[in-house]
Structures are given as C-alpha cells and as structure tokens.
Structure prediction request, 166 residues.
Amino acid sequence: MTYLEALFASMTRQLTQLIPPHEQENVFMVGIHTGGVWVAEQLHRRLQLPLPLGRLNIAFYRDDFTRIGLHPHVTDASYLPVEIENRHIILVDDVLYSGRTVRAAHNELFDYGRPASIKLAVLIERPGRELPIQADVVGVSLALTANQHIKLTGPDPLSLDILTFD
Prediction:
C-alpha cells in the first residue's frame, strides 16, 4: 500500500464513521478544483456514494485577485449535478492551509442553495490558518514551515511532493 493509498483508507474510515448509513442517500460529495476533485474521486469511489460527484471551481470567489490578478478564463466551471438544498455536503480539498479556499467554496455553495450541513475532508492539513476553519476528516497533519509547499499532481497517478523554497 502506498502512502497516498494509506491516507485515502484512513479518510474513508473516518467518513464512514461520520456518515450514518440512513443518511448516505442524502450525502453529496463535492471536490474543490483541482486537487480536491482528485481526492474526492478517490473517496467517492471507495465510499460508493449513490449521488454523483460534484466539482467546485472557486476562481470567482477568491479574495486574493488584487495580488494575483483576475482569471478571466475559467476552463473548468463548477458542476453540481444535484440540488444542494437540505443535502449533507462533504466538501473535499487536497490541502487546508489558510482556510481562504474553503471560505470561498462556502460562498459558492450557498449561491446554489442552503445545505443541511457541510463537513470538510482534506488530504493534508498544515499550520498557517488565517480563518477559523477546521477539517472534520484529515488524511494527515504535517508541521511544515512557511517556506514549504505541498504539491499534489494527478489525476492518474496521484503523487505528493513537499517543496522547499528559499
């Protein structure tokens, strides 16, 4: 078993405990573009959830466009194939760092409706939170420094690297 497979197995166990069997039909998993979608694809397949997987592209909800500029060409728009009103949402991302990506994802989700609940599942969490957001399901917590970054590449095969910048 590879390191990533072990993380997905751990997350699958945690999610199985988090989702009561009688609520599985109302659970809608949504991955945040791009790495979160790759992680969500793995979890969705393992959990065999009955509703199709959704994708969320938060490009228009980012709060850092004054620093990095606007992205006028969003190539992979959000795809939510079912209504989210009163559904239990499992929002999936690859890395939880500042919390700003998750905040932006919440903003976009609420444009589509009012979910019954939102649980957050992340492959990796690291220190550096700027907003009061925490994950319900975590693959691994890594104590990285500010000059270290996580790079998930995929989708097939998925690989994980930790890069250090000077």
About this structure: Residues 3-18 form the longest helix (16 residues). The first strand starts at residue 27 and ends at 32. The helical segments are 3-18, 35-47, 65-68, 100-112.
